[in-house]
Design goal:
Blueprint: H1 14-33, H2 41-67, H3 75-84, H4 87-92
């Protein structure tokens, strides 16, 4: 049995697609660095080192959008794209895990 088919990505400009991809790269690295999650320090260190380049790529994606005159982020469309790309699960790793007693 095949898994359910994901909804299609919304129409994005190339720069918006790059923004979403670079944002998720940063989120994934922050999730690996999150000190409230079980992991080893070496893995966190490697993620922190990679974060520098990923943050620069995210900055560059936003700068490109700005230079092209894309001065507004279309939050609803970008949120749909993030959801299709599993952004809810990926961003949840950045937050604090639930309290053990709740």
């Amino acid at each position: 049995m095949l898994p359910p088919e994901l909804p299609p990505l919304p129409a994005l400009t190339r720069a918006e697609g790059e923004l979403v991809d670079r944002y998720l790269d940063v989120v994934d690295l922050l999730g690996r660095i999150n000190p409230a999650r079980p992991q080893d320090t070496y893995r966190s260190l490697r993620a922190a080192q990679a974060l520098v380049a990923s943050a620069a790529a995210l900055r560059d994606a936003l700068a490109l959008m700005h230079r092209r005159g894309e001065s507004e982020l279309h939050a609803a469309t970008l949120a749909r794209a993030l959801r299709v790309l599993d952004g809810e699960r990926r961003t949840a790793r950045v937050t604090l895990p639930p309290h053990p007693g709740s």
